[in-house]
Design a protein that fits this description.
By secondary structure, this protein is α/β, with parallel strands linked by helices. Helices cover about 30% and strands about 20% of the residues. Helix 1 packs across helix 8.
């Protein structure tokens, strides 16, 4: 059995004796309680054997928490693969994969009569949204035949992608197989759920999201485990859902950082589903408007095929896109006059979307004379100006600094570095009097907007859907996205721009997109041509040349300098390993000596690197000396 303890040196199975009174209930996969190191802990029973190799008397199981076999062989195999991939422990992965038990939900489900799954059509749905993609019909044919097809899909502009995913899901269901769709957030889950139920009313679909309470989530999870439904739609944790006889797994918008788990061992949904597809020999669809370098690597390796719309389809569906550099052609200011005219004209036809990279009012300030970024004298946090405030305020410690003076030149006047969505909405309200201005972002995210003139100011990822599409979209401050201190900055900027641009009406209906950014940048060119595959291929080529993921495997080790040095020295790294650093960890207290070390190996040595680091963490855990360290394999943020 596996005990649920967060100590790396205890990441192995332990043998326990099964008392006669628990012999019937103690089945493989059930939750149990055992005495471990003098205290009662939870665990999962892996298997029953007649004899043990352990010398001496075995401790008995204390009790069976639940007779429900929640740890299925499929989930166990996937959890082990994820732990090996990310240098983690099996107990940590199982904590992510299996929701906490809720006794009332378990009793309620136990009292229900297990109903038969509602029949799906004998014939799969028509190609529908997939007809505009070379290979789209082949994808559906492979799903209807139960073949393990793998594809990377770049959705065309204006595509009804929930309907397309629904067609793929119902095709798999029509073949008698299950389907799993993992999306970044609750809004996307609701859109896909609505598309599936609209295409096939009455089909049982289970949604699994973080917004659900513990009882509801566990109850729905059990309904999948017991075969009451074979389609699951959810957010990050749903990647481990026990969908019966899984035939298709889908991850939408794999570049969204919400797909990266924030708890150890920090797995990414795309990688979890790829491992699951490999182990289960079923289909996988990596989908989005943009294509990440990791998805392109799947195509380049031959493991998956690329699905992109025909050029004539892209031209017919896409809006008119133009890029304007601030100050180009004699224009000055944040909103060039050309963009202002586009917004003015579009407001006669319907709503206009304004995408702003940052929320808040003036989230970043700098010295007016030397342009040095303003930091809090007390904690070194960034200074900003909240709405309605008259003095700079630290965004970390919230201290107000009315008499701030630049430590470099002594200047007391500050200027805005980044203008947030609140200030943008205020400025547009003055520029277009009488036009309603709505904001979407942070705690107030809008789902939809009506088809009437209005200005909708939204942060990336919070753009509401317009009933008939936006008449125009203005993508402001492109430099703020492209200039981020992150090696994925261009890829992330293109993903966010495409997500906003696809909400605009096609150019034939007057839709227009204006991007305020340098036109010559690669990401800007990819948007102008609507060619995410080209951008992903160039991005991957740069990663190969720079020996960065996904062309290589990279481990980031952070912690106090002495602890990181000890861990790296203990690890029996592959001979191909390259150790970079240590380097001071940005944003940390220098007095604590927090550092970061990067260990890089060729892609084929990734498993050996993860095993070596996990073993080293286990040695330090057994010694019980030193401070904590954190190991992340292929972290999302590379900067």
């Amino acid at each position: 059995m596996i005990v649920d303890v967060a100590l790396a040196h205890l990441d192995r199975p332990f043998d326990y004796a099964v008392p006669d009174e628990l012999a019937e209930a103690a089945r493989p996969g059930v939750r149990v309680r055992v005495r471990f190191a003098g205290r009662l802990v939870d665990g999962w029973l892996l298997e029953r054997v007649a004899a043990s190799e352990h010398v001496g008397r075995l401790s008995p199981l204390s009790r069976v928490v639940s007779a429900e076999p929640v740890l299925t062989p499929v989930v166990l195999g996937l959890a082990r693969a994820v732990a090996e991939r990310y240098a983690g422990s099996l107990a940590d992965v199982l904590r992510l994969a299996i929701p906490p038990r809720h006794a009332r939900a378990e009793r309620a489900v136990a009292l229900e009569t297990v109903r038969q799954v509602t029949p799906v059509p004998a014939d799969p749905p028509a190609a529908g949204p997939w007809s505009g993609y070379p290979g789209g019909a082949g994808l559906l044919a492979g799903l209807s035949q139960g073949r393990p097809v793998r594809a990377v899909w770049a959705a065309a502009p204006g595509e009804d992608w929930p309907a397309a995913l629904a067609a793929a899901v119902l095709t798999s269901a029509a073949a008698g197989r299950g389907a799993l769709v993992v999306l970044p957030d609750q809004r996307d889950v609701q859109r896909v759920l609505a598309a599936i139920t609209a295409a096939q009313p009455g089909v049982p679909v289970v949604t699994l999201t973080a917004q659900l309470g513990p009882e509801t989530r566990y109850r729905r999870w059990l309904s999948l485990l017991r075969g009451q439904a074979r389609i699951a739609v959810g957010t990050r944790a749903a990647a481990f859902a026990p969908v019966p006889d899984l035939g298709l797994a889908v991850v939408w918008d794999d570049g969204d950082d919400l797909h990266a788990e924030s708890r150890a061992p920090y797995p990414h949904v795309r990688e979890v589903l790829a491992l699951r597809a490999h182990l289960g020999r079923h289909a996988l669809l990596v989908a989005g408007h943009a294509v990440t370098a990791e998805a392109q690597q799947l195509v380049a390796s031959g493991w998956a095929t690329a699905l992109a719309a025909r050029r004539e389809v892209t031209r017919a569906r896409g809006p008119r896109v133009q890029a304007l550099a601030t100050g180009a052609a004699g224009e000055q200011g944040r909103l060039p006059s050309t963009a202002w005219r586009v917004v003015r004209d579009a407001l006669r036809e319907g709503p206009v979307l304004i995408q702003v990279p940052r929320s808040g009012y003036l989230p970043a300030l700098a010295c007016r004379r030397c342009r040095s970024v303003a930091h809090c004298p007390d904690c070194q946090g960034p200074l900003g100006l909240p709405a309605g405030a008259r003095a700079a305020t630290c965004r970390l410690c919230a201290r107000v600094h009315p008499g701030f003076a630049c430590p470099h030149c002594g200047e007391q006047q500050l200027r805005a570095v980044v203008v947030g969505s609140s200030r943008t909405a205020e400025e547009l309200g003055r520029a277009f009097p009488g036009v309603p201005v709505r904001s979407s972002g942070g705690a107030g995210v809008l789902g939809t907007v009506a088809d009437r003139p209005a200005i909708v100011v939204a942060t990336p990822g919070a753009e509401p859907v317009a009933e008939r599409g936006y008449a125009a979209a203005l993508l402001l401050d492109g430099w703020a996205l492209l200039g981020r201190a992150d090696l994925r900055a261009g890829e992330e900027a293109l993903r966010r721009w495409m997500a906003a641009a696809t909400l605009v009406r096609p150019g034939a209906q007057g839709g227009s997109v204006v991007l305020v950014a340098e036109p010559g940048h690669r990401a800007v060119q990819a948007l102008l041509r609507w060619d995410p595959g080209w951008h992903a291929a160039r991005e991957l080529a740069d990663r190969v040349a720079a020996r960065l993921p996904p062309a290589t495997r990279l481990a980031e080790v952070t912690g106090a300098g002495a602890d990181v040095a000890e861990l790296v020295s203990l690890a029996e790294l592959p001979g191909t390993a390259e150790v970079l650093g240590p380097a001071p960890l940005g944003g940390s207290d220098p007095s604590r000596g927090q550092v970061r070390v990067i260990v890089r190996v060729p892609r084929q040595d990734g498993t050996a690197l993860a095993a070596a680091l996990h073993a080293a963490v286990g040695v330090r855990s057994a010694r019980k000396i030193g401070g904590p360290t954190r190991v992340r394999i292929d972290p999302v943020v590379l900067g």
